[in-house]
Amino acid sequence: MTEAQPPVPVGIQQAGPAELEIRWSDGLTSRYPVVLLRRSCRCAACVDEWTGAPILKPEQVSEDVRPVRVSPVGNYAINIEWSDGHRSGIYTFEHLRELSAGRADDSAAAGDIRDTSPNNAERDSGGETH
Q1: Rounded distance between C-alpha atoms, residue 67 and residue 65, angstroms
Q2: pTM (whole model) above 0.85
Q3: CA separation (Å) from 48 to 36, 37, 44, 45, 108?
Q4: Fewer CB atoms inside 10 Å of the end CB: C or N, the chain?
Q5: Which tops the pLDDT comparison, 70 or 17?
Q6: Residue 22 domain-assigned (yes or no)
Q7: Domain span at residue 79?
Q8: Predicted pLDDT of residue 123
C-alpha cells in the first residue's frame, strides 16, 4: 500500500502588505502574518539548538518586517530572506502546516494564521472568498 504524500506548496504570494499566502497541493490555502512567520523562525540564531529554547525575543522583530525573497529548499522547505537582514531560517512544509493548523480554529484573533480554503473561507472572511 502506498502512503499519501504530504501536501506541498503549489503557490506562494504576498497577500497584502503584512501577509504571505500559501496554496497547498491538497487544496488548503493558508495566510500567514509575516511578522509571526519571522518570529517563528527555527534557525540556530533564533532557537537554541541543544535546548530548543527561544533565543529570538518577539519584541526584537519589528512589526514592519517583510519577506524580501522566498526560495525553495529541496522538496521539503522554503527559505525566507527578511527585510531585517535575517536569511538563515528554513521553514519546513511540516512546520508551516503546523502553524496553519494551530491557528485555523481561532482565525478571528489578531495576528493569527488563517485557513482560507473553501471549507473555511466563509467563517474566516464573513462570506467573502479569498
Answers
A1: 7
A2: no
A3: 19, 18, 6, 7, 32
A4: N
A5: 70
A6: yes
A7: 9-107
A8: 32
